[in-house]
Design the sequence.
């Protein structure tokens, strides 16, 4: 079997860093493409020897020529596209958000076509759906009606359409993944980073208030990353888009898991604010049908592993808690 070679965009982000960690530990040659050069999230989950085995190419995902050149030079057999601006950044600058999130995704499909790579995995989002009151109480199926309420959600919806057209016109297969709330080392931005930031607070014995309430799908970053890699390897044909379910838990349960992993933080973590507007629970039967077994770390284990990583990184001087706690 020919050697697998991976090209990963957005590898300086949370899920991307974990994707790279998994690939490097498997010995898979990996090229990462990102406009920035801050490798802090990678250094949080990888050691220096592992990082030396990664090839970093700096470039703009909105620049087709740069993307095409980087993909071709990497000799990639598998593409994992995670580069995106999050909800607040898209709201603050919709034009930039569209260039990165929409044009960037078109560029990745176009680069795949021109390089002869016939399969691509990309990140969509639960943000393509509407508010919870628009749906019933049953877990939300992949084919549920979409009604995004943010620029970010609209851009992700557009990307799902782009993927479908590249399958119909060019035969490029793709799997889009719709995560809900991802937690774990590297998750330091956005409203849904609250659970992870609370874990950092617990690791250093500081009070912290999570800014949301209610129940949500919570997925360990390593699980999300391993799903990306499994999707890239799956013999899937078509343009599929699948929900990621994770552990469907309340904020109270998240706090209980944090206190179990860090008993000295008992009473330090609180919460306030409205629930997330999306349906509480997503169905993931479609994903399991497409890729087989889905990694699913129990909440207690994922929280304990996260706090352990944070403690080790802080003790080694590789993480400033202020990055998470302000």
Sequence:
């Amino acid at each position: 079997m020919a050697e697998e070679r991976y090209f990963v965009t957005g590898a300086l982000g949370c899920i991307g860093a974990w994707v790279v960690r998994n690939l490097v530990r498997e010995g898979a040659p990996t090229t990462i493409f990102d406009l920035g050069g801050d490798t802090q999230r990678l250094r949080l989950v990888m050691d220096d020897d592992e990082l030396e085995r990664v090839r970093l190419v700096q470039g703009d995902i909105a620049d087709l020529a740069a993307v095409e050149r980087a993909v071709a030079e990497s000799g990639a057999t598998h593409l994992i596209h995670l580069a995106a601006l999050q909800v607040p950044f898209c709201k603050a600058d919709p034009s930039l958000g569209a260039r990165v999130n929409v044009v960037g995704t078109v560029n990745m499909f176009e680069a795949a076509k021109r390089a002869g790579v016939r399969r691509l995995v990309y990140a969509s989002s639960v943000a393509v759906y509407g508010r919870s009151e628009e749906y019933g109480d049953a877990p939300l199926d992949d084919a549920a009606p979409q009604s995004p309420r943010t620029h970010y959600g609209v851009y992700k919806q557009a990307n799902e359409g782009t993927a479908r057209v590249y399958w119909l016109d060019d035969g490029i297969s793709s799997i889009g993944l719709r995560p809900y709330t991802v937690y774990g080392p590297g998750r330091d931005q956005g409203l849904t980073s609250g659970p992870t930031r609370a874990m950092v607070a617990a690791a250093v014995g500081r009070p912290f208030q999570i800014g949301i309430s209610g129940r949500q799908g919570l997925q360990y970053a390593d699980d999300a990353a391993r799903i990306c890699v499994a999707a890239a390897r799956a013999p899937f044909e078509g343009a599929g888009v699948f929900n990621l379910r994770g552990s469907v838990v309340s904020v109270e349960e998240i706090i209980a898991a944090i206190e179990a992993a860090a008993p000295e933080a008992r009473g330090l973590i609180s919460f306030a604010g409205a629930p997330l507007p999306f349906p509480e629970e997503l169905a993931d039967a479609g994903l399991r049908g497409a890729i087989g077994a889905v990694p699913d770390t129990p909440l207690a284990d994922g929280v304990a592993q996260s706090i352990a990583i944070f403690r080790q990184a802080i003790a080694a001087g590789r993480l400033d808690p202020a990055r998470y706690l302000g």
